[in-house]
Amino acid sequence: MKYSIIKNSELEKGKRLDAEYYAPEFLNVETTLEKYPHTKPLAKLVKPIRTGFPFDSFTFSESGEIPLVRIRDIQTKGIDIEDTLYIPKKLALAHKEAIPDIGDVVIGMDGDEFRSAPITQDLGTVCINQRIAIITVESISTEYLFTFLNSKYGLFQLLRKKTTATTVGHISPRDVRELVVPIVTPESHDEITNKVRKSIELRKQADQLWEQAVSDLEKHIERSVASSSTRTSNAT
């Protein structure tokens, strides 16, 4: 059984009485970041964080002009718009603050996972739905921020901040702004950035090879069936 021993001063600092807030893994992350020699709040490293727009559901359609990125579309491997909904282009352009730029990072602020993903060029123009934070980097790279958010030092901070009064967890834009980010050396920053870029490239190659393999198998089966049918026809 896991438990934590909390001082009264820590309760006053956290202003939370729920036990989950003081889970050992959350306290370990907090202690480590306090000891790390150089950290900054995320707000100091990025442009002002904005959020998506609460588009009315009656504007959604299964096919249309501009894909609407919802929280469910943010996956661990990136943003999946294969089964997403669409809104009219005119409506999207009326809310340009909800249109992210390539290189921005989005974070779903409802649920139990708070998944994040970068906006990549292959997505094209998309619009961001409500309850999703949109982050434009300044002093760090997109890849470094994405890596941090998926590490325990980023994710556990968000999980710790989520509300527990409802069945679905929530975080706020303020929670995102106040994330404590470790500042590594320029060499380490660039190394992490390059590794993530390479991983994205390899993932795309892997997806292409997978699709090619499936296509090759299907064509092989269809050719074999067609050939067999031709031989049967000739035999009769």
Characteristic terms for this protein:
236 residues; alpha+beta; four-stranded antiparallel sheet; 7 helices; 11 strands
What does this protein structure show overall?
By secondary structure, this protein is of the alpha+beta class. It has two domains: 40-183, DNA methylase specificity domains (Adenine-n6-DNA-methyltransferase TaqI, Chain A, domain 2); 184-236. It has helices spanning 8-14, 24-35, 89-93, 142-150, 152-161, 173-177, 186-235; strands at residues 39-41, 50-51, 66-69, 74-75, 78-79, 85-87, 105-108, 116-118, 127-128, 132-135, 180-182. Strands 2-10-7-8 form a four-stranded antiparallel β-sheet, covered by helices on one side. Strands 6-3-9 form a three-stranded mixed β-sheet. A two-stranded antiparallel sheet has the order 1-11. It starts with 7 loop residues before the first helix and ends with a helix. The mean pLDDT is 92.
Q: Which regions have little confidence, pLDDT < 50, spanning 5+ residues? A: none
What's the CATH topology label of the largest domain?
Adenine-n6-DNA-methyltransferase TaqI, Chain A, domain 2
Derived structural class: alpha+beta
**Number of helical runs?**
7
Identify the overall geometry: globular
The CATH superfamily label of the largest domain reads DNA methylase specificity domains
* Tally of discrete structural domains: 2
Helix and strand run: HHEEEEEEHEEEEHHHEH
Number of strands: 11
CATH architecture of the largest domain, please?
A: Alpha-Beta Complex
In round numbers, the mean pLDDT is: 92
- Summarize the biggest pleated sheet: 4 strands, antiparallel
What is the rounded Rg?
23 Å
Please estimate the helix content.
40-55%
Strand content: 5-15%
